[in-house]
Design goal:
Blueprint (H helix, E strand, L loop, with lengths): L5 H4 L5 H13 L13 E5 L2 E4 L4 E4 L2 H4 L8 H11 L13 H13 L6 E6 L2 H16 L3 E5 L8 H5 L6 H4 L8 E4 L17 H18 L4 E6 L15 H12 L2 E5 L23 E4 L10 E6 H4 L15 H16 L2 H22 L3 E7 L2 E6 L10 H14 L1 E2 L2 E2 L5 E4 L7 H19 L15
Parallel strand pairs: 3-13, 5-6, 5-7, 7-8, 8-9
Antiparallel strand pairs: 1-2, 2-3, 4-10, 9-10, 11-12, 12-15, 14-15
The chain binds pyridoxal-5'-phosphate (PLP).
Length: 463
């Protein structure tokens, strides 16, 4: 693959972006990314992004579900500027600061569960997951962790070890932590049992629950935690049957297992509730948040039952920069913006509208196998045949390429790298949403009509 060749296949001016893509390849380790097209970001505002060559885009990736309240929200800019006028940060490992305390108070309030909770902070979803595992193991005195196949939890040692979507032979290269057991997630559309989970959700749920319970028994009950995404994100927006999470709660209670709700991608309003788990009416023991929480600044929060969180001895939750004042201030401003601007309701309303539009596209394009999601977390599953449901990664990638040329940042994810990832900022204007949907429709048409050259696949690395 030679970047020089890109310009032959793209209708945009991309020379400046290309310069940075080439330098990035030269200096930044390739494992730090799954790149699509050479788009180097120059600036961003609201739901829009501009590249180094001045091209304008609507952002359907949102920096991987970070900018739920949009890029450079004025509330965040003000809050950060107020904070940096005082102190950038002082470590809460030794002294005290107000911003992380205020944030912890707010998080305790907006997380489900009528019990006393405590919070610990980090910088990324990955370390938030690690903190949750530490708490569950310390609390139960057990070591086993049940995670799900095709899950994504991050790349620190703990979180990577629970990440099912990274193939065992790839994870194996760095010797992940032991005592992690993977169970198949109840994917209604595509599962190894051939169950149609839309028609027979009960059968699917009981299959998965049965497997978990057998594993617990096989391990003689040595299971500290079950870690789950309420909607599997990187697996391609897999929405489980409504009964699954309530049944998981019952199973965790039966065996005294800590139920860890991993909301790094799904939280902070993306599904029309603060937390996706609320769509299923379940109260978990621990919630992990990051990404959108900081509104663009790095922060994670692990919020859990007091007795679980307090079973971890100091200094096992210490990071020098944990609860960083600038990030915590930005997080508080983010939560306020979600409330003040009614973004939960907005995500629900506009998300439903978008979902209906994509369902209509399913009638137009044979390669759309499934459309699913809640709120503004939507996946469009592209297949070679509706009957076999075989992944069609190449068609999905070509749609993304054409969408890029037409002014929309769109990428893929999913078990077969074949699912279009629809995750706009919750503040997106209605006309921007309509324009983005039009771009997707016309990009699909172009791909169906053979107007996107197969050669572009050489440049798209992706999932
Ligand atoms: C569901 C989920 N968990 C955890 C992570 C890891 O978060 P981070 O990359 O901030 O460490 C991600 C990131 O994509 C994610 O989507």
């Amino acid at each position: 693959m030679r970047w020089e060749d890109v310009e032959r296949y793209v209708s945009l001016k991309v020379s400046e972006s290309l310069r940075w893509a080439k330098e990035s390849d030269e200096y930044i380790a390739s494992a730090a990314g799954l790149k699509y097209y050479p788009l180097c970001v120059e600036k961003a505002e609201g739901a829009k992004v501009w590249d180094k060559d001045g091209n304008e885009y609507i952002d359907f990736l949102t920096s991987a579900c970070v900018y739920n309240i949009g890029h450079r929200h004025p509330k965040i800019l003000k809050a950060i500027s107020r904070q940096i006028d005082k102190v950038l940060n002082y470590t809460i490992a030794y002294l005290y600061e107000d911003a992380p305390v205020e944030l912890a108070k707010k998080l305790v309030k907006i997380t489900p569960g009528d019990f006393k909770k405590k919070v610990t902070f980090g910088f990324s979803g990955s370390d938030g997951v690690d903190s949750a595992i530490k708490a569950a193991r310390a609390f139960t005195g057990r070591k086993g962790i049940i995670a799900f196949k095709d899950s994504y939890h991050g790349t620190t040692y703990g979180s990577l070890s629970l990440t099912g979507i990274v193939k065992p032979e790839v994870r194996g290269k760095v010797y992940p932590i032991p005592d992690v057991y993977f169970i198949e997630y109840p994917d209604p559309y595509r599962n190894s049992w051939g169950i149609d989970g839309y028609k027979d959700p009960k059968e699917l749920v009981s299959k998965v629950l049965g497997e978990i319970e057998s594993k617990i028994n096989e391990l003689g009950g040595d299971v500290a935690a079950i870690v789950f995404e309420p909607i599997q994100g990187d697996a391609g927006v897999v929405v489980p049957p409504a009964d699954f999470i309530p049944e998981l709660r019952k199973l965790a209670d039966k065996y005294g297992i800590v139920l860890i709700d991993e909301e790094v991608q799904t939280g902070i309003g993306r599904t029309g509730k603060w937390w996706a788990v609320e769509n299923f009416g379940v109260v978990p023991d621990i919630i992990v948040s990051a990404k959108a929480l900081g509104g663009g600044m790095p922060i994670s929060a692990t919020i859990g039952k007091e007795e679980v969180m307090e079973s971890v001895p100091p200094p096992l939750f210490v990071f020098t920069h944990s609860g960083h004042a600038v990030s915590a201030t930005s997080a508080l401003a983010t939560l306020e913006a979600v409330e003040e601007e009614g973004l939960l309701e907005r995500a629900r309303r506009l998300g439903e509208r978008a979902l209906r539009e994509f369902e209509r596209m399913r009638d137009e394009f044979e390669f759309i196998g499934d459309v699913r999601g809640i709120g503004f977390l939507i996946g469009i599953d592209i297949v070679k045949s509706r009957e076999t449901k075989e992944f069609d990664r190449n068609t999905a990638l070509k749609i993304c390429w054409r969408a890029w040329e037409k002014g929309l940042i769109l990428v893929t994810f999913g078990k077969g790298g074949n699912v279009l990832r629809i995750a706009p900022p919750l503040i997106i204007k209605e006309e921007e949403l309509e324009r983005a949907i039009d771009i997707i429709r016309s990009s699909m048409k172009d791909v169906r009509d053979g107007k996107v050259n197969d050669e572009v696949l050489r440049f798209l690395r992706g999932w």
